[in-house]
Amino acid sequence: MWAGFRARLPELVRCAPALLEGLSQLRTSDWRVSIVSNGMPDNQLAKIERAGVGERVDACCTSGEVGIRKPDVRIFELAAERCGADLAAGGWMIGDSPEHDVADGRAAGLRTVWIGRQQAWPRAEPQAVRTVPDAVRVYVDLPTAIAAATATRLTTLRTIQPAPTSMAVTKPQPGRRPPSSPGR
Hints:
This protein has one domain (34-170): HAD superfamily/HAD-like (Rossmann fold), CATH 3.40.50.1000. It is 38% helix and 17% strand. It contains seven helices and seven strands, in the order ααβαβααβαββαββ. The chain has helices spanning 2-12, 17-28, 41-50, 63-66, 73-82, 98-107, 138-149; strands spanning 32-37, 59-62, 92-95, 111-115, 130-132, 154-158, 166-170. β3, α6 (98-107) and β4 (111-115) form a beta-alpha-beta unit. α1 runs parallel beside α3 (41-50).
């Protein structure tokens, strides 16, 4: 039964057109986008492609592929590297999981945005730099948040359910381009 559900899950994934447009706008603004996921590559990559997100990202980094899981900072470093950026340059983590997105992003040295879906912050830890009600709202608030906090462009974004993935968005350092094979 689990195998059947898992095989069918990518068919059920949908992404709001505004979210897809927001990702496209990030890319045209010279951002680099990488998906970071603690999932298995076959299922996660199928969901990413089915949702229309795959063509709007530069790289994908799944724990099942690379053998590293969040909160290990190396998965964030690898995602940034696949985009031609350096995690040490700073950046952003955007997601709906207080633990795996906000806390782990902070541990990796990233600023954070929490997609709270109208919920109260559930942890005693410091909150994200910014909280938004839904993934689409990220594209309204992100430019303001970044302008106020940093000149670098590295962001990790968790897409809306049922596609549980995270994305890193990076702006490469001068003279550094992403590899020709983004790891997808």
